[in-house]
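Appendix B. One record, verbatim.
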Amino acid sequence: MLQKSKKEEMIKDFEKAIKGSQSMVFVNFHGLKVKDETSLRSALRGQGVDYKVGRKTLLKRALTGKAKGEIPELAGEVAVAYSADQTASAREIYNFQKAHKGLLEIIGGIFDGNFLSKEAMTEIAMIPSREVLYAQFVNLINSPIQRFAVVLDQIANKSSAS
């Protein structure tokens, strides 16, 4: 059994994580083996995402009043992933979940000051990273210009061949 001071310290750690992050994902990690958790933590750390395991009761106490809406059902063994990037924590958990079927499950989260369900957090997880979105945008803008240049080149080749 944890001492009261240790519990208060854990609640303060969770509160600090909530306050310092743009989004937070609640993860059920039931059945996750130590080697898988080590690789998960390493992958998350590489993307600037922090991961913390704690007691559900202490997490609920830390979450109370920190976002709008109702706290999602925290079923199973619960951990939180959080980062300064709004989508990174959800995206990285989702990617790990896809690569390691059945080991993790997103069970909800906090995004933009609101508690969200599993489904909503999964949708957020599917948003590409900022760099990928920039590349897609540049490609979208560049594509018509490239096609126009190809057409002009072909017209120039036809007129010089005649």
